[in-house]
Amino acid sequence: MAGKPKIGKVLVVEDEALVALATEETLLDAGASKVTLVSTTEEALLALKSESPDVVVLDVHLADRDDGWTVAELVSVFGPRAPRIVFATGAPDAIPPEIAKMGKVLAKPYLPEELVSAVTKKRPHGLLAGLRK
Fold first, then answer.
1. Is residue 1 part of a domain?
2. Residue 56 domain-assigned?
């Protein structure tokens, strides 16, 4: 559909079913080509391998781990083809600052427009772009 941003494939790591489904609906409505929902760190790691997402929307406090940002740390090993990270959390201050720099942080509850903006925003490339930030 014309006018919709290109989102690509999104992996949503969220253990609250209603939040996960609402996130999926928002992303599909916004033009995501595919949305994969998982609820644990282990499922997230498997999906990262098999799905090759363009974006990961990551709840940092999951039922199986309270440090879901470890998924974001592992994403960095993908190098320049690593998916963009969007942290979705009710406690944004609990994310260590060095981890928060890895992606956009959305404080729950957030508006659907904020989510769409976060997943469509391109991150800077190259050393100079990183320094400008």
1. no
2. yes
**Could you write out the DSSP letters of every residue in 2-55?**
TT----EEEEEE-S-HHHHHHHHHHHHHTTEEEEEEE-SHHHHHHHHHHH--SE
Structure tokens at 63: 């039922």
- At 31-88, the pLDDT tens digits run 999 999 999 988 998 999 898 899 999 998 887 877 777 788 788 777 667 899 999 9
Tell me which residue range forms the domain holding 45: 8-132
Q: What is the pTM of this model?
A: 0.85
Query: DSSP letters along 93-110, please?
Result: GGS-HHHHTTSEEEESS-
Q: For the domain that residue 75 is a member of, what is the CATH number?
A: 3.40.50.2300
68 lies in some domain:
yes
> How many domains does one find in the chain?
1
In sequence order, the 6+-apart residues with CB closer than 8 A to the CB of 55 are 7, 8, 9, 10, 11, 83, 84, 85, 86, 119
Confirm whether 3 is domain-assigned. no
Q: How far is CA 51 from the centre of its chain?
A: 14
